[in-house]
Amino acid sequence: MSQLIGAPLLVGAVAYTPNVVPIWEGIRDYFDEPDTAMDFVLFSNYGRLVDALRAGMIDIAWNTNLAYARTVLQTDGHVRALAMRDTDAAFSTVFVAAAGSGWSGPGDIGARRLALGSADSAHAAILPLHYLRAAGVNVDHMQLKRFDSDIGKHGDTGRSELDAIDAVLAGDADVAAIGITVWENIGRGELMPGMLEQVWQTETYSHCMFTALDTLPEAVSAPWVAKLLAMDWEVPAHRRILELEGLTQWVEPHLDGYAGLFEAIAEQGVDSRW
């Protein structure tokens, strides 16, 4: 772990796909200056990533919302949220059904068979049940079909959401809960024209976050965060990295967007190993 000003920071992330390697190589090259130099290390799952941050093996973790919440809970709040993508500041879950269903709103979902993504996916499993419960649906009596396709990756691969969609199209489930990015990129796009329709969408919440422990000196983290926030969509070299990572701008933390997830973790007794 870096402790000295000028020493390279070590950033950890999860290798949910081989494509993350060129993304992080590009990010490392962008930070290649004396005050912001960094390197990265990849982990197979978020449990290991959070453990490494807590143990001081890395300086900063690129966490999902569940990994961020886990870090907060397991350190009694001794963390520092650094920055997030603009797309993470306004994430949501979309409930979809086969086109022509005519269903609308949480009441209609509560009476149907619901397909959920991996149990450790906040956007495709944990928060869908939380927001349905908050809307008055008795989720304890719902017929749920779970697809634990990528446990450990917190839904990053998108595989479990595609499995949930397949279940709806095959008639094995009535409604699927998927993240807004899957809906925008696949569900209502050219890949599945006219096959699905939106039944309901949750309120927005926060997703991924660069996270450090509060023991990381501000003098070390501040220059790195400032350079991250300075990445500019109008600069072609920057845009390549931003496009690969799915954002147009890095933004300061939106911590109020995690309130629903902390409530959901307490309600559902989410496995702390995730």
TrEMBL record:
Cross-referenced SUPFAM superfamilies: Periplasmic binding protein-like II (SSF53850)
Top-rank lineage group of the source organism: Bacteria
PANTHER family according to UniProt: PHOSPHONATES-BINDING PERIPLASMIC PROTEIN
Name under which the protein is recorded: ABC-type phosphate/phosphonate transport system, substrate-binding protein
